[in-house]
Amino acid sequence: MPPPRYSPFETSLPDLKPDDLDVLRSVQEGWYVEYKRELPSVRSIAKSISAFANTYGGWLFYGIAENRQDRTAGAFPGLPCADEATIEMQVRQAASSSISPPPYFRAKTIRGPSAELGLADDRFIIAIEVPMSDEAPHIHVDGRIYRRVGDESDPRAETDRHMLDLLWQRSERKRKALRELLRRISTTVSENFDSGSYLEVFFVPAAWKEQIPEPPPSFDDFATLMTDSSLETGGLPLENCFTFSDGFIARQVRGNNPRAQLLTWRYYLDGVSHITVPFSTFPLDAKDSPLSQYDHFATFEAKCSEVGYTNVTVIDLNYLFAVLGAVVRRHDALGNLAGALFPYRVKLRFRGAKSRVPFLDLPNFISFITAFGIPIGHFDDIFWPSEEDTMYNFGEPAEDRERWTHDRTAKLFFRAFDAFGVPAEHIAKGDNWSQALDGLKDRATKVYGLRRATPRQS
Q1: CA-to-CA distance for 454 and 452, rounded, in angstroms?
Q2: Which helix (DSSP H) or strand (DSSP E) does residue 319 occupy?
Q3: What is the DSSP string of 196-210?
Q4: What is the mean pLDDT for each group of 10 consecutive residues in the chain (458 residues)?
Q5: Which of 66, 230, 256, 356 has a CA positioned 20 to 30 A from the CA of residue 143?
Q6: From residue 454, how far is each of 38, 250, 324 by CA, in Å?
Q7: Residue 58: which H helix or E strand, with range?
Q8: Angstrom distance (rounded) from CA 77 to CA 73
Q9: What's the confidence (pLDDT) of residue 144?
Q10: SS3 114
């Protein structure tokens, strides 16, 4: 569970209304609260956000003037609504470009009118909620580490070595917890299902252990989403849904062996998702295997024969791009059911890759193996990113959600294939690599049937 957080309100940030801010007339600036009448520079915003994250968390308000006598909220002049989009962008930039690592926070614009506050209908107040961060210290772009101190209205640069050590220890506890989480989830899965070649995808909210999903999804909402076969939610129906002690599970069992390692989504109530994606594997010389239906398999088979790879097992990775795209879309939809899923981080883990060779039905892949030979798995487990407690930061979805989804899916796909031995720059060569991936997705779907983009498991 996340640590208890201070809030001056009886409702959560997403539900705040203008009149709820009236309680701030009796709330003083200090450890947990900061008021600013105007929006300061991006660097100043970053200083305040990082200070709250490094200390105990707190609330930052722009568009509220401080009462200098008792340091409570004295007036609510607000900021001009005409500048709302620009101001929201500056707040996001403050965290992404001026703080390292960027801390998690939530912001809401609260528009007038409010007669009780004296807030006009063309003015708004922006409220920023910053949890105490488990990834401290967050370092400002000026090289300093800021903290909140007592009843001071502005952050102070921390120079005490003992306090800095405590911040580093807090961060180390988060990394250790993350290592243990990934190891526990992955080990449980590998011990309970048949061995094979499969991919594990971990989605962990950036605010994991700092903020729980709010509100958490119900089982019925989860099941409705997972059984949905529309393209908006990924197009992969997982029709077998049930609960477990920590959350919900959805599996794609129709037409498959339920004892096998199937396409499975495990959702934990703290916002973590763990998805297993099984791969089809075939002996290179297997008769009538689905691999023969691909455009470039005959060339791949001939290249294998040239170097004596006649008795190897081939991993069919051709539907990987389709599945990763579906998974990203579904996690996006899951974020609409459960708060605190964005921004989030991703980790990939391949299991059962040792002594197996990958196949990708793309001309660029054939060009690579022609020039450099055929990669073969040297490790049973392959991680990306390789460090056990490091994850790839997906960040906040962009305004063009379709492009954002495609680009993030391609990023994961390239890194996955990079881990398998083929550098991403060789797969992404030329001007038409994006269209080539879309074509690959279509071919893989035809090979394994139009209903699902993952193969049937025996």
Answers
A1: 6
A2: none
A3: --EEEEEEEETTTTT
A4: 72 90 95 94 95 93 94 96 93 89 89 95 95 88 91 80 84 84 76 73 84 78 92 84 94 78 89 90 87 93 90 90 89 79 83 89 93 89 81 73 82 83 84 82 75 45
A5: 66
A6: 53, 15, 11
A7: strand 58-62
A8: 11
A9: 94
A10: strand
- Closest alpha carbon to 44 in 144, 111, 125: 144
Tokens of 160: 């005490």
Buried/exposed code over 421-432 (b: 16+ C-beta within 10 A; e: otherwise): bbebebbbeeee
Determine how β-strand 139-140 pairs with β-strand 99-100. antiparallel
> What pTM was computed for the model?
0.77
Q: Are 126 and 63 in contact (CB under 8 A)?
A: yes
**Which amino acid type is present at position 44?**
S
Both tokens assigned to 222: 């989860």
Q: In this structure, are residues 103 and 130 in contact, taking their beta carbons and an 8 Å threshold?
A: yes
Residue 218, both tokens:
């119900």
The encoded tokens of residue 171 equal 């961060």
CA distances from 116 to 19, 99, 109 (A): 7, 36, 18
